[in-house]
From TrEMBL, chain A:
The lineage of its organism: Bacteria, Pseudomonadati, Pseudomonadota, Betaproteobacteria, Burkholderiales. PANTHER family: BLL5683 PROTEIN, METALLOPHOSPHOESTERASE. Belongs to the metallophosphoesterase superfamily. YfcE family. This is Metallophosphatase family protein. One of its GO terms (molecular function) is phosphatase activity. Residues 1-212 form the Calcineurin-like phosphoesterase domain. GO terms for cellular component: cytoplasm.
Automatic annotation (TrEMBL), chain B:
Pfam families: Pkinase, Usp. This is Serine/threonine protein kinase. InterPro entries: Kinase-like_dom_sf (IPR011009), Prot_kinase_dom (IPR000719), Rossmann-like_a/b/a_fold (IPR014729), Ser/Thr_kinase_AS (IPR008271), UspA (IPR006016). Residues 13-284 form the Protein kinase domain. It comes from the Bacteria. Keywords: ATP-binding, Kinase, Nucleotide-binding, Serine/threonine-protein kinase, Transferase.
Length: 253, 481
């Protein structure tokens, strides 16, 4: 059994299609979307149509902070809008009632056969804390284990791929995976995996990210998938969204 | 954990005799268990089962080591590791079934041989270096090479055992800790491992150096330190030169051994294939003061290094494959007849370009002469005469190259089949890149016949660059005279 974990799609239809096709080719038979389905990108409605279709077929879907923002766009305070909220109103206006109903009903966490899926951190999921280091990963794992969940926690939100594992020492240690190289993740060894961002990579490499969990062999593979990012950037410009959103996809940061 | 009796069944395997009952594990010979109808599946090769000793009192390191060995052995390929068969569930019944390899450990060699001859030492060292290089090419550093973990097959090749302390660059390192501790065996551990660096392929080269030192002298270069302080000595200390213990040892071998044992990894062989190369070509080893000396390093030099070493601490290592790819062995095939000056010129240009971007690369210039060219009766055609003439031709050819910083050697191979000789040389010396002329016998023929360059390009174990001849106009006059 192979579970594809796709997070932070950010309404990037081209990246989503590329990751889905890549995962299917690798033999993925189940999909999980770890939140931030929309926001920033130019195709929120099309992306949600695809994901709602997959959800009907059994895909697992979580809600992220940008999905929340699309449901309730924050009002700009004194003209000072954050980068993320700038497009939230635009995204909100693109969505149908069916899309909004779907987003509203999404859970913040899902427990699935020894895995805990969450958008940001198992440490108070609703606070959208970043798993951006060994201690944050440690708190995330601690909370998951305290609720008898895990011991493998899979998260998005940080837009980087990383694996935090417990070796001979006491604390969690960070491991930077080599794309395409399977990493052993035995069921007895706790870990927190950041699967990276499908639709808005921020590490200087424009290729989309996702991770594939092989439940039989107990291995996780972090993938980088090239996709038509110039087309995704062009769509952002056509939609009249901020230029920086488009450039971000072209430069991968 | 008590010993299992012959006939005991574990997950489809039947235990036979106990081969080894050590502190960390029991190892048994096993066969496939008979199925319900009494028939027994034949194994492709003899098998051994390793069961870690774990009782309530055992530390976590034991199970971590076992997990590392399982992860790495199940991925490694090639003839230098035992083949992986099966593993038991770690939380229920941990065991590992692997190929039982015929042979003697190097420990057995050391225990049972009075003296080991120089050619034997070189052959053992080269076998270990080739095996280590095969691991490094798969992104694994062994990090616990010692005589008990090196098995020599009857054909002389080496098989590495026990990957419990090893490190795979693409896997989380389960033995890494916030507090970087020395992980390894005190006698053979490299200086960088002492300060917690895990994953440098040159650490394995150091361990091979310690084993060669022991083979050559019967002594351990750094003794058997019992404390971390004792192990830290090797961060700054040169061992006594082997020729001090055994004056009849050739200088080239001391040069090789002491280069492996350099305290700073960057001063050792840049890759294990370079070490294997020197051990198989003693006449090409460039002997320096390091090889000639018979007295140890003086107090002041050691003192200065000791001061510097006190600041040495952990730093991350580069990925083994990237590291060894930066220091390739490049082989150029230089033809000696039917060859135009333009071809020789173009070959040299291609070599210069390839070396130019790889500062640590080593160059092997090779020419193949047919076996009929030498004669044991005519003195002007005697083997040494003919070889000497070809060697000097190769050296002349290489003269215009800027070879500063590149170890270079020259080789005359005798064979009736040029392509075969080149291929065997490339394979035997773990060559990373072959440079040769594209067409020595006309491009027209290549569509019907597998010519030398086509055969080499198709069968070589590495990259092959086929160079087309081309001479700049202004050079035509000077070389065609």
């Amino acid at each position: 059994m192979k579970l594809a974990l796709i997070s932070d799609i950010h309404a990037n239809r081209q990246a989503l299609q590329a990751c889905l096709a890549h995962a299917r080719q690798q033999g993925a038979d189940q999909f999980a979307f770890l939140g931030d389905l929309v926001g920033y990108g130019a195709d929120p409605a099309a992306v949600l149509d695809d994901i709602m279709h997959l959800a009907e077929q059994g895909a697992l879907v979580l809600r992220g902070n940008h999905d929340d923002m699309a449901l309730n766009p924050p009002q700009a305070q004194g003209g000072e809008a954050t980068l993320g909220s700038q497009g939230a109103q635009w995204t909100h206006d693109q969505l149908s009632d069916a899309h909004r109903n779907f987003l509203t009903r999404l859970p913040l966490t899902l427990s699935h056969d020894g895995l805990l899926l969450v958008h940001a951190s198992a440490d108070r999921p609703e606070s959208w804390r970043y798993v951006d280091g060994e201690s944050a990963a440690g708190r995330c794992l601690e909370q998951a284990l305290a609720q008898q969940q895990g011991p493998h926690v899979l998260v998005g939100h940080v837009h980087h791929q990383a694996l935090y594992f417990r070796g001979a020492g006491r604390g969690l240690m960070k491991f930077e995976p080599m794309p395409g190289s399977p990493v052993p993740t035995p069921a007895h060894r706790p870990m927190v995996a950041c699967v990276g961002s499908c639709g808005q990579p921020r590490d200087g490499d424009p290729r989309a990210m996702y991770a594939l969990c092989d439940r039989t062999l107990q291995k996780i593979t972090f993938h980088r998938v090239p996709y038509n990012h110039t087309e995704a950037a062009a769509a952002i410009r056509r939609a009249g969204l901020p230029e920086s959103f488009a450039q971000r996809l072209e430069h991968g940061r | 954990m008590k010993l299992l009796n012959p006939g005991h069944l574990i997950d489809g395997f039947e235990v036979q005799t106990c081969l080894h009952a050590g502190g960390m594990a029991h190892i048994y010979k096993v066969v496939y268990a008979p199925s319900l109808d009494g028939s027994r599946r034949a194994a492709e090769f003899p098998m051994a089962m390793k069961i870690p000793r774990m009782t309530a009192g055992d530390g976590a390191e034991n199970i971590v080591s076992f997990e590392i060995e399982l992860q790495i052995l199940s991925e490694l390929k090639g003839t230098h590791v035992p083949r992986f068969v099966a593993a038991g569930d770690l939380s229920r019944l941990p065991y590992l079934v692997i190929e039982y390899v015929e042979g003697q450990t190097l420990q057995h060699w050391l225990d049972h041989r009075e003296t080991v001859t120089v050619p034997e030492m070189a052959a053992l060292g080269a076998a270990m270096a080739r095996a280590a290089h095969s691991l490094h090419q798969q992104n694994v550093c062994h990090l616990d090479l010692k005589p008990a973990n090196v098995l020599i097959r009857p054909d002389g090749s080496a098989v590495m055992l026990d990957f419990g302390l090893s490190c795979h660059a693409h896997y989380p390192d389960l033995l890494a800790e916030e507090l970087r501790k020395a992980v390894g065996s005190p006698v053979w551990i490299s200086p960088e491992q002492v300060v917690g660096v895990r994953g440098d392929p040159r650490s394995d080269i150091f361990a091979i150096g310690v084993m060669l030192y022991e083979l050559a002298t019967g002594e351990l270069p750094f003794g058997e330190p019992a404390t971390t302080g004792g192990m830290r000595q090797r961060l700054w200390m040169d061992p006594p030169p082997p020729r001090k213990h055994r004056p009849d040892l050739p200088e080239w071998l001391q040069e090789v051994i002491l280069r492996c044992l350099e305290p700073v990894a960057a001063s050792r062989y840049p890759s294990a294939s370079h070490l294997a190369f020197d051990l198989t070509h003693p006449d090409q080893v460039k002997v320096t003061e390091r090889g000639r000396k018979t007295e140890g390093t003086g107090f002041w030099t050691h003192f200065k290094r000791w001061v510097r070493a006190s600041g040495m601490a952990y730093r991350p290592s580069p990925v083994p494959v990237e590291q060894i790819e930066q220091v390739p062995i490049i082989m150029v095939a230089v033809p000696h007849h039917d060859v135009s000056d333009a071809t020789l010129y173009s070959l040299r240009e291609a070599v210069a370009r390839s070396l130019g971007i790889r500062p640590g690369a080593r160059l092997a210039c090779v020419t193949v002469i047919s076996s009929g060219l030498t004669s044991s009766t005519e003195s002007e055609k005697s083997e040494t005469q003919v070889h000497r003439w070809h060697l000097s031709r190769l050296q002349q050819w290489a003269q215009p190259l800027d070879l500063g910083g590149h170890q270079t050697s020259f080789h005359v191979l005798e064979s009736g089949d040029v392509a075969d000789a080149l291929l065997r040389y490339a394979e035997g010396n773990q060559v990373n890149m072959v440079i040769m002329g594209a067409a020595t016998h006309g491009l027209q023929m290549q569509r019907v016949l597998a010519t030398v360059p086509i055969k080499v390009a198709m069968q070589a174990p590495c990259t092959v660059i086929l160079v087309k001849q081309g001479l700049p106009f202004e050079r035509l006059a000077e070389v065609t005279v």
